[in-house]
């Protein structure tokens, strides 16, 4: 991405969690340590099933007396509903602020021109009362911005930014192996560790209990990671959950078909190195693995 570009991500939403129990509420259910989240640091996290399978992922940002959750827009209502189930008697308020705030992305180079900025994943500053932060998953994804809609275009003007096609940003994300679009298709189809959340700084193994912690910790301790999510490319049509074959052997399945496809691959296959360089097929359609996470 170029220095003065800004990508407005209209398919991202904002959930706001506040109240005197907000911190403990989140700490008891999400995979990362909420104590990491301050006005100068944000983190990536997720919500899993009790069995440790993927449900939602989001970035957690400190905002006033509560926390923003930056998540996929079409998942906002489902996420709020799930959080409501765990709320019980906790003194928290859960709001959908997607109509008030916009998520955007700028380059690391631009971010570093701002006061108090650092080139560290998750590092957060406040610019005109809005959080700007280096993507906590991977610095190569740039710096994210959560701007009040009333100030969006004024901030763009003040910073000398130029609007860019958000598809270009998602292409970068896809190549880096970070799924951000149509993540609903991942739900309950794989474990959090299989989503690469450890590599994306989304799981803290030193914090206390959270939903799905037991299986997640066991998989880590016993090195039982047998599958991994990888970005793929292909020409033609492939259906959700269709099998991927290599030398007539099923080695994985498609979880996200478009516009940025991802597939879940078996990591225990003894021919995995050859698989990466070989030809993969799903319903006679040839696929390619974009990002080699095995080497």
Tell me briefly what this model is.
This protein has 7 helices and 17 strands. By secondary structure, the chain is an alpha+beta fold. It has a 6-stranded mixed sheet, with helices on both faces. A 6-stranded antiparallel sheet has the order 13-14-15-12-17-16.
Descriptive overview:
It is a single chain. By secondary structure, the protein is of the alpha+beta class. It is built from 7 helices and 17 strands. Strands 8-9-10-7-1-11 form a 6-stranded mixed β-sheet, sandwiched between helices. Strand 14 and strand 15 form a beta hairpin. The longest helix is centred in the N-terminal third of the chain and has 12 residues. The protein is globular and about 55 Å long.
Proportion of beta-strand residues = 25-35%
Kindly report the name of the CATH homologous superfamily of the largest domain: Probable tRNA modification gtpase trme, domain 1
Average pLDDT, to the nearest integer? 92
Order of strands in the sheet with the most strands? 8-9-10-7-1-11
**Helical content band:** 10-25%
CATH top level label of the largest domain: Alpha Beta
CATH topology of the largest domain: Gyrase A, domain 2
Total strand segments: 17
Helical element count? 7
Query: What is the straight-line distance between the termini?
Result: 26 Å
Count of the domains: 2
